[in-house]
Write a structure and sequence with these properties.
This protein has helices at residues 35-45, 59-67, 82-90, 110-118, 140-144, 190-198, 203-208, 213-217, 237-248, and strands at 9-15, 51-56, 71-74, 97-100, 130-137, 150-153, 159-163, 179-189, 222-226. The protein is of the alpha/beta class. A seven-stranded mixed sheet has the order 3-2-1-4-8-5-9, with helices on both faces. Strands 6-7 form a two-stranded antiparallel sheet. The N and C termini lie far apart (43 Å). The relative contact order is 0.18.
Length: 250
């Protein structure tokens, strides 16, 4: 078994220009620099990765990353999701763990990422195919917002299911129900990521439009790590304004 302390870990930031809900969001100004530049620099500043890359098929994003002094890989194929885009980029790279940092989630917490990577250093970690983050949701509007992907886990914190619908359904109101938002940062074993790339989409993933469901449908084990840091994913112009205010108050 490979010594987990010697695992080669990289961060990949998939970056599309034509987002369905907010086209061009990664090139929007976020208090003096673009969203994608902010995310790249935040990932780099953690010091947790051997390398950080942006992977994109868009000239505007490619040029922006180069301008900021970053590393960028150009996609050669059309892709349905970020995991596929990353898999193409890392297929011939000598890496063990690939961390998918969402380009539209620029508020990266080093402590949370450290906990995520520690999953692969624990006894029995060879059974874990990927790890991801979750954070508790308490606001009813946030719980019901389909842009917030919810996750439920078993007692060992392995993911049971992800949904845009509020899960679990609180049929028994006498039971305290806790909701968790899935924070879209993943740490994949390269082998699991390449399996994802080669396996077809199945009905649950197609229905929910949540790519990590594919791993569950094919029997992969996803370890969830709780974080108290409230991430802001920039899916709408309103989210961008929230992010600007948060940065202004830092």
């Amino acid at each position: 078994m490979q010594d987990s302390s010697k695992l080669r870990v990289i961060a990949m930031i998939p970056a599309r220009y034509e987002a369905s809900r907010f086209p061009g969001k990664l090139m929007q100004d976020l208090n003096g620099q673009t969203v994608i530049a902010t995310t790249y620099k935040a990932a780099k500043s953690t010091g947790l990765f051997d390398q950080v890359y942006v992977v994109t098929d868009d000239d505007r994003i490619y040029d922006e990353v180069i301008k900021t002094g970053g590393k960028v890989v150009r996609s050669q194929k059309e892709h349905e999701c970020g995991s596929d885009r990353i898999a193409e980029a890392v297929e011939n790279m000598d890496v063990d763990i690939v961390v998918n940092v969402q380009g539209d989630e620029p508020f990266i917490d080093t402590n949370s990422l450290t906990k995520l990577l520690e999953v692969f250093q624990q006894p029995g970690s060879e059974e874990i195919d990927l790890a991801s983050l979750k954070t508790e949701l308490k606001d009813l509007e946030e719980i019901n917002n389909p842009n917030n992907v919810k996750v439920i886990t078993g007692k060992d914190q392995s993911a049971l299911y992800f949904s845009r619908f509020p899960i679990p359904y609180p049929r028994d109101t006498s039971v305290e129900t806790v909701y968790y938002k899935h924070v879209g940062i993943y740490a994949f074993r390269k082998s699991a990521l390449m399996d994802f790339y080669r396996l077809p989409m199945l009905p649950l993933e197609a229905s929910e439009k949540i790519e990590c469901i594919r791993y569950l449908e094919y029997g992969k084990k996803i370890k969830m790590v709780e974080t108290s840091v409230k991430s802001i994913g920039i899916d709408t112009p309103e989210d961008l304004e929230k992010a600007r205010k948060l940065l202004a108050n830092c």
